[in-house]
């Protein structure tokens, strides 16, 4: 199987991945990462699909993943630090921001897992862990990035494609920066001061008024990845839910 004309074995070498499974059509790349992990695949194993028919996002939402129009990527991450699992999506987001910045694309992050360009959603991140008791076995990292249009009419005003930001950047060029960056995810149980500074520099929510999950003003992140919201009753820590701005 080829991906944009490149054989899977050659693509693995370009990406520095131990293996790269390329398929024309899958339910979700995350499902295949879990299967590979259970079979003993090494950290950094990559799954790429040209199309997902059941791509998923947070809270069971469906991710629009048409053939040839985006990067539908799954990567196997192995860690022994159980506390790092809740930080995985944030760290993946930071890695992608840095990777695309090296290609001239300035991104923002909307807590907890949205990739934005000029205020519109360019991509999303979903990380799923598998556990044995209190020990984490692995984390499947799923990344979806819109690359080519057209976008569905109901998404056109709030979504973006990479072609708008950098029409000369191909899927393979973007993957060549993103996949190596994902191999360098920290395993610590808390965000470092450097990570918090990096996040603050691309934090789309910071300073914005929120309606949900609590009313107030977004004030950044805590070291455990919680969203800090300044409310009438003080600062609240938000660890989940959908964010709606005013």
Sum up the structure in keywords.
246 residues, alpha+beta, seven-stranded mixed sheet
Quick gist of this model?
The chain has about 250 residues and is an alpha+beta fold.
**Biggest sheet character:** 7 strands, mixed
Which range does the strand content fall in?
Answer: 25-35%
Please provide the ordered H/E string of secondary-structure elements: EEHEHEEHEEEEHHHEEEEE
Total DSSP helices: 6
User: Structural class of the helix and strand makeup?
Assistant: alpha+beta
Distance between the termini: 46 Å
Blueprint (SSEs and pairs):
Blueprint: E1 2-3, E2 6-7, H1 8-15, E3 20-23, H2 29-38, E4 46-49, E5 70-77, H3 88-101, E6 108-110, E7 114-117, E8 120-132, E9 135-146, H4 162-165, H5 171-182, H6 193-201, E10 209-212, E11 216-221, E12 227-231, E13 234-238, E14 244-245
Parallel strand pairs: 3-4
Antiparallel strand pairs: 1-2, 4-5, 5-9, 6-7, 7-8, 8-9, 10-11, 10-14, 11-12, 12-13
Explain what the structure shows:
The protein is an alpha+beta fold. It has six helices and 14 strands. It has helices at 8-15, 29-38, 88-101, 162-165, 171-182, 193-201; strands at 2-3, 6-7, 20-23, 46-49, 70-77, 108-110, 114-117, 120-132, 135-146, 209-212, 216-221, 227-231, 234-238, 244-245. The strands form three sheets. The protein has a seven-stranded mixed β-sheet. Helix 3 (88-101) packs across helix 5. The longest helix is centred in the middle third of the chain and has 14 residues, at 88-101.
């Amino acid at each position: 199987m080829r991906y944009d004309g490149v054989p899977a074995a050659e693509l693995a070498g370009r990406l520095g991945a131990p293996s790269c499974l390329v398929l024309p059509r899958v339910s979700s790349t995350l499902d295949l990462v879990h299967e590979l992990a259970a079979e003993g695949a090494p950290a950094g194993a990559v799954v790429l699909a040209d199309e997902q028919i059941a791509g998923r996002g947070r809270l069971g939402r469906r991710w629009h993943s048409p053939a040839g129009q985006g990067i539908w990527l799954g990567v196997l991450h192995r860690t022994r630090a159980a506390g790092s699992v809740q930080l995985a999506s944030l760290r993946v987001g930071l890695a992608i921001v840095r990777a695309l910045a090296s290609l001239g694309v300035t991104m923002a992050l909307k807590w907890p897992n949205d990739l934005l360009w000029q205020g519109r959603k360019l991509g999303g991140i979903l990380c799923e862990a598998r556990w044995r008791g209190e020990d984490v076995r692995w984390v499947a990292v799923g990344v979806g990035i819109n690359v080519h249009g057209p976008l569905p009419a109901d998404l056109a005003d709030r979504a973006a494609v990479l072609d708008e930001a950098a029409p000369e950047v191909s899927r393979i060029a973007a993957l060549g920066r993103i996949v190596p960056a994902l191999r360098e995810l920290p395993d610590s149980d808390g965000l470092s001061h450097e990570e918090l500074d990096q996040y603050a520099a691309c934090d789309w929510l910071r300073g914005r008024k929120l309606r949900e999950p609590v009313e107030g003003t977004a004030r950044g992140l805590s070291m455990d990845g919680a969203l800090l919201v300044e409310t009438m009753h003080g600062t609240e820590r938000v660890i989940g839910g959908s964010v709606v701005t005013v």
